[in-house]
Amino acid sequence: MRISRTWSITLFLPFLICFILFLVLPLLYGLYISMHSWSVFGGNGGFVGLDNYTAILTPGNIYSNAFYLGLKNTLIFVAISVIPLVIISLGLALLVDSIPDKLKVYFRTIFFISYAVSVTAVSAIFKWLFTGNGGYVNNVLNTMGFSSINWLNEQPYAWVAILIATIWWTIGFNMILFINALDEVDQTMYEAASLDGANWWKKFSYITFPSIKGVFVFLTIVSVIASFNLYGQTLLITAGGPTQSTQSLIMIIQQMVFTQNNLGVGSAMAIVMGLIMVIIVATQYFYSFRNE
Amino acid sequence: MKKSKSKTILVVAVASLIALLFLLPLIFMIFTSFKALGEAMSSSALFPKLWTAENYASIFGISAEVPILRWLINTGIVTVGGTALVVFVDVLAAYSLARLNLPWKSFFLTVVVSALTIPTIITLFPMFYLFRQYELIDTFAPLMLVYSANTMGVFLIYSFLRGFPKDLEEAAVIDGATLWQILRFVVFPAIRPVVATLSVLTFLTIYNDFLWPSVVTSSDEMKTVTLGVANLVQGANFVNPGKMMAATVVATMPALIIFVAANKYFVRSVVSSGIK
Known about the structure:
The structure holds two protein chains of two kinds.
Chain A: H1 5-34, E1 36-39, E2 43-47, H2 51-57, H3 62-97, H4 101-112, H5 119-130, H6 136-143, H7 157-183, H8 187-195, H9 200-228, H10 232-238, H11 249-258, H12 263-289
Antiparallel strand pairs in A: 1-2
Chain B: H1 5-32, H2 37-42, H3 54-60, H4 68-99, H5 105-115, H6 120-133, H7 140-145, H8 151-162, H9 167-174, H10 179-190, H11 192-208, H12 211-216, H13 225-234, H14 241-266, H15 270-273
Transmembrane segments (chain A): 12-32, 75-96, 105-130, 157-179, 212-231, 265-287
Protein name (chain A): Sugar ABC transporter permease
Family (chain A): Belongs to the binding-protein-dependent transport system permease family.
């Protein structure tokens, strides 16, 4: 098409400006701040090189203690959440996929609906479902003759409550992507497999799974990233407790910046966290596609 | 695959059971909001024995301690403004990348894709500090502007345009249409489903965001409804589940309604087009 270069730049320009202002600039500024002693309310207190990073990573001081605590808790959550988030959503997608088309739409909407609920609302609901005294789950347990469980103030129940809330909240998005992927699997291959007498599991492992592997890897990576960003649920449901065991890395960074008024260390923590995420995601990606 | 009828019935029955279980938290939210304090704290039944609207009255009433109407209005302004900005900026950029001879095109594409991996926590606090320096904390500016750097939308529309034939646009060029006419009458109608998807996803992102608004608002009057309710949830004296669920219903319903209404657009095809 003969549309001038000027026009193509003009159309791209608004996005470029937003991108620079709200991504590139803050990114560079964050790097800059992380190498300074910097408080939110006092401003720049001078260049300190990599001191903030050393403080976070050298064991035994208050900064590294906080950082490792948050990192440990976050990694625990990643470890317990990613597998159910991917496997359950795949199971749901396979189930919905085998429903007749006319009804499929309704089920898809129902399982996707929690995607429209905010973390605030999710937390409010599950907080009152799991509250020890007067919470709905314990009321039901009592009626059935069981004793109450101290869901939010005792481990591992606190993680269980947060995990259930998170799965309920985010499973629909993963499921929709799996359903779309399943829709595109070549149906004639199933017919051929049926003629050869292949059972369900054989069809799944030789036809379905290889066809949706790309989406599977993508969703695993997305789930790792999402679980790393754990914040709202632990802040609102358990407030980081019991005894700081659900205090996530983002909660720690947030406190470092606002409660401790240390933007320099907080920024350094955010950058280290970002690097850890990139390394994990890149490793996952590399191993998933190594054989191809 | 051929399926016997009994097998289909079994599948639907299992799916219905799971669906019911899945809807339980929402059902709990709605019914609890109509229970009085005593019943809400002790009941193990979902349905209220005595229906009451007092929880809603206490939120909306004149003596209510929280400006929830103001929060809803704020949310309206921020989500509509923010979503319009994202859609405007992303559609133009994606069109330029997919169809026009933009200089350094492949460089920009690489940047757009790699930016997807940058965790938001890295830019969050520097951005807060920048807004603070320009004294824009506690205004609408930070609440709606920052989402415009989201590269997901550019990528989504770009991928859609790549799979869309150029014929109509080329015919329009030959007929002497201007760029504006092409965008308005040829491109935009064609990409409407993906624009709708992007709009709803962006709308929900802004509507439901919690961390960023909690950082850049300080007064009660400037809160969004999601943030306002979050503060209620955290508040130590908010110990009435019925009241808490009423606030949550008010905060959740607008997004739920819009989501269900727009659901048909991304039920199929488009959400996945970006990741293949």
